[in-house]
Amino acid sequence: MVDPAVSTRRTRARGSESAARSEALQRLKSLRRSTDRRPEPNIQIKLSDPIYDSVPESDYAALVARRRDHFGDFIVDDGDDALGYADDGREEDWSNPNGSESRSDSDTKEDSKKDSNKKKNKKPAASATRKPDPDPPQRQRISSMFTSAVFKKGDQRKGVSVAAESIIDDVLAEFMLDEKDLEEARRQRRGSTRPSSSSINNTVSLPVPPDPLIIVQSENKELESEEVPEAEMVVAESNDGKMEVEDEVKLEVEMEKSGKVQLLLNAKVETDKDENVASASDGWREVCREEGNVGGEIGGAEAATDANAVECSEFDLSSDGSLPFYIIDAHEESFGANLGTVYLFGKVKAGGTYHSCCVVVKNMQRCVYAIPASEETYSQVLDVQKMSSGLKDEIRKILVDFNISKFSTVPSKRQYAFERSDIRHGEHCVLKINYSFKDPPLPADLKGEHFCALLGTHSSALELFLIKRKIKGPSWLSISRFSNRSASERVSWCKFEIVVECPKDISSSETPPEVPRLIVAAINLKTIISEKHNTNEIVGASVICCYKAKIDSPMIASEWKRKGVLSHFTVIRKLDGGIFPLGLVKEVTNRNLKAGSNVLALESSERALLNRLMIELHKLDCDVLVGHNISGFDLDVLLHRAQACKVPSSMWSKIGRLKRSVMPKLTRSSFLYGSGASLGIMSCIAGRLLCDTYLCSRDLLREDSYSLTALAKTQLNKNRKEILPHDIPVLFHASETLLQLVEYAETDAWLSLELMFHLSILPLTRQLTNISGNLWGKTLQGARAQRVEYLLLHSFHKEKFIVPDKVTARSEVLNTTKRKVVVGVGGEDADDLNANDIYPEKEGQQDQGKRKKGPSYFGGLVLEPKKGLYDKYILLLDFNSLYPSIIQEFNICFTTVERPDDGGIPNVPSSRSVGVLPKLLKELVQRRRMVKSWLKAASGLKAQQLDIQQQALKLTANSIYGCLGFSNSRFYAKPLAELITERGREILQRTVDLVQNTLNLEVIYGDTDSIMIYSGLDDIAKAKAIATRVIQVVNKNYRCLEIDLDGLYKRMLLLKKKKYAAVKVQFKDGIPYEVKECKGLDMVRRDWSALSKNIGDDCLDMILSGRTCEEVVEFIHSHLMEVQKKIRNGEVLLDKYVIMKTLTKPPEDYTDAKNQPHVQVALRLKQKGYSGCSVGDTISYIICCQQDPSSGSSGIAQRAILMNLRAMTTIG
């Protein structure tokens, strides 16, 4: 409560000030209106009482003497140890910054001071008072500058009116507040806001331990001379960077609860920068500096033309009148009135250029197969018609009961060969049922008198469209009949939109034209943590666009960094309750004028920022959104903030290409790594591909860390500066630092774009999608299981097989809910269902906790190794693609293998008709051989691309076996997986027996698909001859299986199963060279520091060097002693102590978080707003020593620190 008396006093003070101000203004007004500039006789200047008197020197000396006599002994002297307090009678000089001198000063100093005081008290005759000293330049107020200017100008005038105006100006200056005062007042009001008691309590109760105080021991004397501040006060930092000291009572409590531990970093800090590594920001500035390379016009000349011009354009049709359409993405709604409508997104050519187009495919029909209950085989058409009459009547009655009035039924022949025990394998005369997707699906477990099962009840419209129309990934389609939609009727944001009433009017193009180039936009958001809501808030967003991205081949830097291909745009906003720093608006205006368009925009709020960002993305009409961890963070934050800020649907829906009125459910249904973006996010961006360089790099690269900083260093050879969310508000204090933030955001977006081109992500994923026939967007999200699923769906549909149903949580909810609607148990209509109630969830999440790791049957054979150090040549022979080769060799397929009733391992099939799986694998193997042949003649970037392709084909082939043994796979078949692994064990054992018994060679180790043979020879030519002989003997026993020489080792240390180190001999242009290879050793683990790995490498190098045992032991002992000495002396570089460990689940879900160092670091980082702390992220940290052991030891986890090694500032 505010005291009324205080309030009254404040009101009266304001009133007196206002009255004085008004009176002064009236006097000024009357003076300026008067024509007579002579002084008026009635003007009186009221002077205040004098502050001090001006007296002669003799009178002042007498006054000082009287004071000494009267007040000199007001403090009793304690003798020799007295403090010397006394009054010497002189005036205190408060202008002296050092204060008054004590009585203990020397006589000389006292005498000089007396002389100085005498001189000060001497006044000129013309002046009656002493003027105050002027303020320092940095502390002068703006108003004082104006006042001084008025006085200088007034010196040229004559008359008393000048003096009067000067006096009035002085009076006004006392009451007026200048701009700087206003700004300081606003900052003080914001800075003085104390946190509420609830927020303080929340801060204290957080389980995350505080950041320890880090003390770095350095050899730099300047650093050692600096005092380390002790944590004597608890301070709270406000938004504008000002520090607020807590109360004294609170200080003691916080110090006791926080228990900060001083930790010691006894290591050498490397301050010199690597000259071979460029700065990422410098690289972006260089790209911008090159004239014309980077434009600022979003949606400019290289983008699509103006919308009005597009409306008037006509499609470039084929000679037969059909429309060529290049499909990029496809989408279907999972609920609502548009259920069953398929939306295709891609490119069409109009007016000689490519534009975005949406194809709305209507009238999709469900396709359900009713399997007859009779086991008799009908081979004649008349018998089929007779058999189906009773089945038709029963199905018709069931459909009517389910309120399905329009449907069609037709008998047809189909085959079934999968794992449902209630359906006979082989050919069936089934009843094919078609009806609209507007009607509810039939229950999957429905059975009747004339049929034993229904298949295909929950197949999606999109799946049926892709499979039946034989569309395999991004490709050219031919649309024979279509109708245009006007702008007012459109449901998408594309330049063109057409409607196709019949899905059969769309087919794959037989003569495809050139592959169009895509528009790619890289996005980076800069966020802060809201202290009020504890959520991420967006303060800046940068977009860098490439208008001509190739998708059919790799794109080198000179192609996408050339003139007219790139553009950029950044928008930033004010912090809540804050203002932009002085000079920023002028700098932004200059930048935009220099660029010729808006490359930098300022907004007043987060809502305005989001609206501006969506407008610019809509102008771009981009096909691909790129970002690092854009799936797991950027898009999630962007859409949640749009929801929180109440951004209208006409704006936020522009993040994708479908117009929406309601935002889908954004809650992640799975936090497992590899799940990518949630289904709600994917629905929002439907029509645009999502390229997450974080997810793609994990699939394509093997690195210790997949952060943007680490990948920029290892892949792009650039150093990236990382800005944490809690550091961003400080950058808003000055224009220079805020423009640095803009540069950091643009640099991060540019690095994501460069990483995408460097890894050739778009061409590679496009090719993988063309192989599998699934959606390109799913491939970009790392959906390997779906790739294999669609590969098998296309293959089995081609052979007229009924595929197994895909049972998901969504289908179960739909099945149960729809059944309630029909029977009337729930009492609600299907159209009234909430989207959140039936939204699809990730597969396998329900049984995630109970599911066992790995298969429930025997895997590959691993022989017991003959441990030891081998100093002669060792041969490593490996079967090429063992499991895919076994499938081909023994014709193992769903269609050929007979499953035993007891669930045991089936026998090798005797059928000579080749199964579907062997055919498919043969095609993949042949394609991989072709790519490998091209790889031999390629070099540079092309060689890297081809190597990735052949690895992708190999993984796809091996994944077919994986889907057979994965219990949540749609094509799960445990008997087939067991048969394949059993054949693999037999083949490996037979090969070992053949080599040892027939060729009399020693096999020292074997693992699944490879064996190691000790040759006992020093001659490399003779060792290779042995390998050739083994290959010939083994391969002649098989038709598809091939063993080949995979490695030649000069020396090897074989420790145990799957663990060895060796010197491998490789050849380049016929010339041998040696490399060290380590498999399974602990030193290759990421959770070992670089120091440990280096020690292990040095020891291994000596062990494998070929020296005597005594020399090796002596070297290892001396080397370990030397390393120990460097560690104790602090000579080891700090980054050598860094340990990396991956989060396998959210840090909050760890039950033993207190004992996990990387979890503790992740919790601290997450509290500060760092986004790289989710499942699958790698945490880098250092374990520090405790400086004061007497204060009680702290655990290793509490002493784990994540540090920015370049800036030497704690960030974790």
From TrEMBL:
Residues 25-94 form the DNA polymerase alpha catalytic subunit N-terminal domain. CDD domains: DNA_polB_alpha_exo, POLBc_alpha. Residues 102-115, 839-849 have a biased composition (Basic and acidic residues). It is found in: Nucleus. InterPro entries: DNA-dir_DNA_pol_B, DNA-dir_DNA_pol_B_CS, DNA-dir_DNA_pol_B_exonuc, DNA-dir_DNA_pol_B_multi_dom, DNA/RNA_pol_sf, DNA_pol_a_cat_su_N, DNA_pol_B_thumb, DNA_pol_palm_dom_sf. The keyword Zinc-finger applies. It catalyses: DNA(n) + a 2'-deoxyribonucleoside 5'-triphosphate = DNA(n+1) + diphosphate. One of its GO terms (cellular component) is alpha DNA polymerase:primase complex. It comes from the Eukaryota. Pfam families: DNA_pol_alpha_N, DNA_pol_B, DNA_pol_B_exo1. Residues 775-1193 form the DNA-directed DNA polymerase family B multifunctional domain. GO terms for molecular function: chromatin binding; DNA replication origin binding; DNA-directed DNA polymerase activity; nucleotide binding; single-stranded DNA binding; zinc ion binding. Residues 193-205 have a biased composition (Polar residues). Residues 1-54, 74-155, 184-206, 833-853 are annotated as: Disordered. Residues 458-710 form the DNA-directed DNA polymerase family B exonuclease domain. Keywords: DNA replication, DNA-binding, DNA-directed DNA polymerase, Metal-binding, Nucleotidyltransferase, Nucleus, Transferase, Zinc, Zinc-finger. Its EC number is 2.7.7.7. Gene3D superfamilies: 2.40.50.730, 3.30.70.2820, DNA polymerase family B, C-terminal domain (1.10.132.60), Helix hairpin bin (1.10.287.690), Palm domain of DNA polymerase (3.90.1600.10), Ribonuclease H-like superfamily/Ribonuclease H (3.30.420.10). GO terms for biological process: lagging strand elongation; leading strand elongation; mitotic DNA replication initiation. PANTHER family: DNA POLYMERASE ALPHA CATALYTIC SUBUNIT. Belongs to the DNA polymerase type-B family. This is DNA polymerase. The lineage of its organism: Eukaryota, Viridiplantae, Streptophyta, Embryophyta, Tracheophyta.
